[in-house]
Every structure is written in structure tokens, then in C-alpha cells.
Amino acid sequence: MRWLLDRVIIIQLWVLAALAIKNPIITGWNPDPSVIRVGDEYFIATSSFEYWPSTPIYKSKDLANWELYSHAFTKPSQAQLYGVPTGAGTWAPTLSLVNGKYYMASMTRWTYDPVARVWPRVMWVSSRDLKTWSDPVWGDAWGIDPSLFQDQATQKVYLNFMAPNNNADRIWGIYQCEVDVDSGRCVGEYRSLWNGTLPHTSSSRPEGPKMFRRDQWYYLLIAEGGTDDLHRATIARSTSPEGPWEAAPNNPILFNGAYGYDNLTVQSTGHATLFDTPEGESYAVFLARRKTNGTSPLGRESFLAPVQWKDGWPIVNGGEPIRLSQSFGNTTDQVSPPKPFTDNFDRANLDPSWYQLRIPYTQNFEIKKNGANGITFKPNVFGLSDRDTPAAILRKQKSLNMTFSAQLLPTKSGLGYGETIGISAYLSELQHQDIAVSGCVNSTGMCIFTRLMMNGTVEYDQVKLNSSTIPSDLTLHIRAQPLSYTLGYSLGMNGTKYWLKELSSSWLAFAPTNWFVFEGTSFAVFATGTGKPWPPHAPEVGFSRVTETYFEENIPDYDKW
Ligand SMILES: *[C@@H]1O[C@H](CO)[C@@H](O)[C@H](O)[C@H]1NC(C)=O
Ligand SMILES: *[C@@H]1O[C@H](CO)[C@@H](O)[C@H](O)[C@H]1NC(C)=O
Ligand SMILES: *[C@@H]1O[C@H](CO)[C@@H](O)[C@H](O)[C@H]1NC(C)=O
Ligand SMILES: *[C@@H]1O[C@H](CO)[C@@H](O)[C@H](O)[C@H]1NC(C)=O
Ligand SMILES: *[C@@H]1O[C@H](CO)[C@@H](O)[C@H](O)[C@H]1NC(C)=O
Ligand SMILES: *[C@@H]1O[C@H](CO)[C@@H](O)[C@H](O)[C@H]1NC(C)=O
Ligand SMILES: *[C@@H]1O[C@H](CO)[C@@H](O)[C@H](O)[C@H]1NC(C)=O
Ligand SMILES: *[C@@H]1O[C@H](CO)[C@@H](O)[C@H](O)[C@H]1NC(C)=O
Ligand SMILES: *[C@@H]1O[C@H](CO)[C@@H](O)[C@H](O)[C@H]1NC(C)=O
Question: What positions are marked as the site Important for catalytic activity, responsible for pKa modulation of the active site Glu and correct orientation of both the proton donor and substrate (predicted)?
């Protein structure tokens, strides 16, 4: 006990809790997880929409602790994300092994704007090491959520995906064709596989098909019910990968909203993949939301649950709903809360956990300039509200209880109105909450301003900086809690924090009418000329350091606050 106390004092900022595996296994928005086991290691790919590089792949040895391993799309020849709106881009990857090589099937959609009438395109890339990926092969089928499955009995490769029955009534279902992985062409019959378990209408969305074999059965695991609270996993089996399919007697096999349990914090459980450990234990990886007071600012995260098999059917989590307090498995403990993250931008390359929005046309930041620490921006006309690539880098918000802080580099002169450098809690180009420095509105000098976006309205407030240059210790902060975000500043990373504005976290989980939001919140550091090129007389701007501090997350099992 004495030893334990000493240890707690030494590590102060975090505790090693004896939790084994706790959910979410990958925190921060990481929807549509697809898992593959390689020996005694596991890899999960998740959707990243308009973020670049695209489609992160995480690795774990113990199922509890996951590290970012690679990104599937790192070259513009692989995915074109120019001008894509929030929610479009690339999504729903599926990892599989075909002819001894790893494949990742995915899809891209330039926009879902109904006027543009651009449809999703199915594609796949391949890799020997899950790190470096090929250019894509484009499938000639029309649909979303593609996955490749090779039948070891015949070596045939099937493309399974969600598609409309035709281009007139567009009733979506799970479709299949045998495919040539090298050309992308369907070489077998294009067939309707399964329409799921819910009433089948034009609004039904049987999606995310994953096919696997276990003993004598082929299984077809899908998601149904739409992306919101009714999202669930259902399964069918057959003696052939081509069907016919028999639905499980216990469908949906995963659905937290069932049985009146829409009061649980964990909701939207679905889009699952099943896998076995080398010891023969089965698990499901799936997406779910943590709903806090009805809202989910972190979006959809990756979850895990144990699976038992009975009479050739899977039972997820013993048939019980998923609760955050549950822990399971027999592995290394998860570190909770995680260690603080600090980036001094003192390495040649940006840490891979940083993203940009869409594919940059030109490099708009520079790190470790002239041997000094820090990141400097080459701000352009674009800002966080544009469907372009502003001079901004973003990290996913990883905890519901954390602080994101960024210390500015000092400047040699002042900023004029519109010349802006700051940080943001960013959900989309339609919804981001900024605190930044710029020339003041309606007066001379520089101001620290907050700019909050709530349903199309913008609330702008400013305080005078009282300095003709940005001082070397000015630090901007965003304190994120389950129900609120608070924006403030200090002089020095550890100086007294002055909090300027607070807003409900529901404004970081909000899609204006006619828009979708499939992502969760990220934190951005950014600079912009606000519609104008950065003027030659304006100073160089940037950040010397970014720090994330995580606190304990005591999120209740039931959404009661
Ligand atoms: C699925 O629904 C479509 C559209 O109604 C229908 O054409 C197709 O035969 C159905 N497929 C199966 C496997 O029942
Ligand atoms: C949640 O809903 C279930 C099913 O309706 C009910 O039995 C349970 O009492 C509720 N729990 C809480 C904490 O509200
Ligand atoms: C929960 O959300 C409702 C609005 O849906 C709001 O009125 C209430 O104040 C929130 N509760 C807390 C504890 O913030
Ligand atoms: C947990 O795993 C360790 C090492 O693999 C093993 O020695 C131990 O018996 C296991 N404990 C349980 C409860 O399964
Ligand atoms: C700037 O002045 C205009 C006109 O008086 C006023 O409407 C606006 O609220 C002012 N903005 C700020 C941030 O003070
Ligand atoms: C957002 O504004 C629209 C249009 O005015 C309105 O219909 C909707 O109810 C508002 N939503 C929220 C959450 O305030
Ligand atoms: C600048 O001075 C004004 C007036 O004294 C004060 O209200 C404001 O907080 C100061 N700004 C900062 C960033 O300290
Ligand atoms: C801020 O405080 C932390 C914890 O006390 C310390 O580790 C860190 O060095 C301090 N940073 C600065 C810039 O003083
Ligand atoms: C967030 O962290 C603070 C500071 O450690 C703590 O007081 C608070 O209870 C935490 N909130 C939740 C919901 O865990």
C-alpha cells in the first residue's frame, strides 16, 4: 500500500488502473472499425472522411492499447479529397487477406450534394505490411461499404457491398459479385445477397457487409437501422458465400437501443467485425457513440466486446447491452487517463496524429525552421469555414475531459484585421469554435477573439491584447468537458488562465439541416488571411508548443447528468 501511494505520487498526472480492456478501445472519432489479426497482432482501420492523410490503421498486441500504425491513403493518386464537404471523402474500410496479400476495400465520394449527383466509388488498395499501400483498383460496381472476401475452398474473391436494386427506385440492400481484384471488374453474377431483418423500403440501409467463414458456415454480418440510435448489427449464415442466407434467431446480435435501453450512454452500436485470438477467444469490434446529455461531441468511436458461440451463432457480450463500466479480457491494463501529449515540433516530420483538411494543394506549414522548435504557417485565403485546405493541422479529441493548449510563437510586428492565428474545437466547415488573435474589430491594435458558431449564427467577442506584437508566452486553451467547451488564454503554459467563453458541447455534435456529420470533434491550430492572401508586411506566425492534458473520465453507464 505504501509502495502504491509512493507510486501514485511519482506519476501524479495519471494512474495505472487495473482495468484490462475498457471501452472505447480507440477514443476520439474512429467510426467503421474493421479488424484483422496477423499472428498475435491486431490491426484496425477506421473511416476518416475529408481528413488527410486518410484512413488510419491502428495496431495492438493486447486489444486494450492501440497505437497509430499507418495511413492507407497518403498520396493524391490514391484518393482525391479536393473540395469535399464534411461527411464525404473516404470511408468504411475493410481489411482482408486475399492471395496472401492484405487488401483494404473502401470508397470515396467527392460530395453527397444532391444537385451534383456524384455517386460513391468503390475501390481497394493492397499492401504486404499494412503500412505502404498501392494505388487503388477501382471497382465497376456502384455502391458503398465494400469488402473483399476470398473463399479458401475455391480461391474465388467476392466483392460484397451495399447497393441500390436499380437506378429508379433505389432500394438499398447487400449485393455481391465475384471480382477480379487486379482489374476491378465483376467476373461473376451481380446478385442481391440479403436485405437484412428490418422492413425493406427505400429508407432501409442494410450496410457494412463483412463476410467470414467459421467451421462449415459462411457468415454475412451487416449493420442496419441507419447511423443514429437505431444502428445495430445483424447476421446471417449459409453453406455458400453466394447464399441463400439464413438469419440468426437472436438478431440483432448487437443493439444498445434495444429493450428500451435508449437511456444508456453507449448508443449506435453496429458496423461490427468478428475475429478470434490465437487462443480461440472471439471478439467483436464495432462503432458506438458515447451519449452525454443527449449529445456526442466525440462522434463514433471504436469499441470491443467478447463473443461466445452457441449452435453456430455468435452471442455478443453475453446478449447484454454494452456498458462503459464493463471491463473484460486478460491483458495489459489500459493506461487511464492517458499520459499528457506534448508536441514541440522539434522533429523533421509532423507527428502522424496530426491531420490536414482535404488534400493540400501546397505545403502550408513548416516545422523546425532554422533549427528552432515550432511550427510556422504559410496562411492562405482559406479558413476553417472553407471547403479547401486552410493552413491548419488538427488532432482528434481523444477524451471527454481534457485541455488542449497551444503556445504562440512571438511575432516581430502586429497583425492587421483578418490576419488570424489561433486554435479551434472543430467539427466541420459549418461548425467550429475558435479562439484566436487578430487585428481588433472597430479599433486599432490586436485582440484575442472568440468566434462561436451555433446553428448558422456567429457570436464574436474580443479583448484587447495590449501588446503591439504577439508576446512569447501567449497560450490559448480549450477546456473540453462532457457537457461544455470553454475557451481561454494565459501568459505562459502554466500561467493563470482567463476563460472568455463557454458553450454547450451539443454545438460540437451538430449538423445543420440537410447536412450530415459523420466525424467527431478535433482540435485545430490554424492561421488564415480570412479571405485574403497573407500580406507581405504581416509577420510570420506559428506555435512553439501544443499540449494536451487528460483528466479522468467518469462517464456514467446511463445518460443521466
Ligand atoms: C432485396 O430487395 C430487392 C428490392 O426489393 C429485391 O429485388 C431482392 O430480390 C431482394 N433480395 C433478397 C435476397 O431477398
Ligand atoms: C433504463 O431503461 C430500462 C428499460 O426501460 C429500465 O429498466 C431502467 O430502469 C432504466 N435505467 C435508468 C438508470 O434509467
Ligand atoms: C442537458 O441538456 C438540456 C437540453 O437538452 C439542457 O436544458 C440541460 O441544461 C442539460 N443538462 C446539463 C446538466 O447541462
Ligand atoms: C491471464 O493471462 C496470463 C498470461 O497469459 C495467465 O498466466 C493467467 O492465468 C491468465 N488469467 C486468467 C484469469 O485467465
Ligand atoms: C463593430 O461596429 C459595428 C458597427 O457599430 C457593430 O455593429 C459591431 O457589433 C462591432 N463589432 C464588435 C466586435 O465590436
Ligand atoms: C437551427 O435553425 C433551424 C432554422 O432556423 C431550425 O429549424 C432548427 O430548429 C435550429 N436547430 C437548433 C438545434 O437550434
Ligand atoms: C488589456 O487591458 C484591458 C484594460 O485594462 C483588460 O481589460 C484586458 O483584460 C487586457 N487584456 C489582456 C489580454 O490581458
Ligand atoms: C508546467 O507545469 C508542469 C507540471 O507542473 C511542468 O511539468 C512543466 O514543466 C511546466 N511548464 C512550464 C513551461 O513551466
Ligand atoms: C474531469 O476532470 C476533473 C479534474 O480532474 C474532475 O474534477 C471531474 O470530475 C472530471 N469529470 C468527469 C466527468 O470525469
Answer: 145
228 CB-contact burial (10 Å; exposed 0-12 / middle 13-18 / buried 19+):
exposed
User: Is-catalytic flag, 32?
Assistant: yes
Grid coordinates in use for 493?
A: 503554459
Identify the burial level of 156 via C-beta atoms within 10 angstroms of its C-beta, where 0-12 means exposed, 13-18 middle and 19 or more buried. Answer: middle
- Quickly tell me which residue has 492523410 as its cell: 53
Average pLDDT over every residue of 501-513: 95
| Annotated catalytic residue 207 | yes
Three-class SS state of 317: helix
Residue with cell 437501422: 225
Q: Quick one: pLDDT band at residue 344, thresholds 50, 70, 90?
A: very high
3-state SS, residue 46: coil
Q: Whose CA is nearest to atom 12 of ligand 7?
A: 465
Check residue 167 and give its pLDDT.
87
Task: State the DSSP string of 491-536.
Answer: ESTTSPPEEEEEEEGGGGS---TT----S--EEEEEEE-SSSPPPT
Mutate to test the pocket of ligand 7, among 435, 450, 463, 469 (most ligand atoms within 8 A of CB): 463
Q: What is the C-alpha separation between 553 and 483, in angstroms, rounded?
A: 12
Place of cell 442494410: 206
Residue type, position 96, single letter: S
- CB distance 555 to ligand 1 below 6 Å: no
Other CB atoms within 10 Å distance of the CB of residue 210: 24
Q: Is the pTM of this model over 0.85?
A: yes
Q: Which of 334, 471, 469, 497 is nearest to 404 (CA)?
A: 497
